[in-house]
Amino acid sequence: MAVAAHNEDSIRRCIEVASKPVPKGPLEASLALCDGKHHLVGGLNPHTGVKDLLDGLTREIRGDPTTRILLGLFTPIFEPMQRGQATANMGEKTVVELVVETAAPENAADIANGLKTLKRNLALGSVLTLGMPFMKADSTKLMASFSRTMAGLEAKQKGRDLTLTLTLDSSMVAEKVIEAPKMMRAK
Q1: What values do phi and psi take at 157, rounded to 5?
Q2: Is pLDDT at 109 greater than 50 in this prediction?
Q3: Could you tell me if residue 13 is inside a domain?
Q4: What is the domain count for the chain?
Q5: Do 161 and 99 contact (CB within 8 A), yes or no?
Q6: CA distance between the termini of the chain
Q7: Any domain includes 10
Q8: Are 88 and 37 in contact (CB under 8 A)?
């Protein structure tokens, strides 16, 4: 089990909750997926607000302009989220699926449109960052790689739910998993 949170209190709460029987609640569907065929399962109940989480992360990594830019792009997309769940399955291809539940169908449509804009901006941004003096070579490479990855993202809306599917070559995923700690240590 891995826990990602923006502060120590959130992590302590997760550990406390994990030690008790599974309660009824917004993450029940995500927890049920853990008994299935998926290699990875994640759930998100943004009761404290995704914006607060992203703002906290932004404060933590304020020295890296690329990460700040990427977090800034995602904030407006996920603000209307009520709940989300993600699965990942690995084989020859790695398929990551995120199902986002919003308060209303128009929120799901807004997220889908925001993702289209994000993909266009990332494609443009990966070209523009090549000439920016504050961008480190690794950051520019990361932005370009992220842009190529996001280009393969598909979004399907059904009512107030939005399903995002990303299919990746598993050898590329393995390469990035191995490369990530090296890039982190270099900073």
Answers
A1: -100, 140
A2: yes
A3: no
A4: 1
A5: yes
A6: 27
A7: no
A8: no
Residues 111, 160 contacting (CB under 8 angstroms): no
Name 154's bridge partners. 165
Residue 59's pLDDT band (boundaries 50, 70, 90)? low
Distance, CA of 180 to CA of 14 (rounded, Å): 26
Alpha-carbon distance of 164 to 32, in angstroms, equals: 19
Structural domain range at position 39: 28-186
Is residue 74 a part of any domain in this protein?
Answer: yes
Q: How far apart are CA 167 and CA 136, in angstroms?
A: 28
6 part of a folded domain: no
Q: Note the pLDDT tens digit of each residue in 21-40.
A: 766 877 888 888 887 888 88
Please check the confidence at residue 130 and state whether its pLDDT lies above 50: no
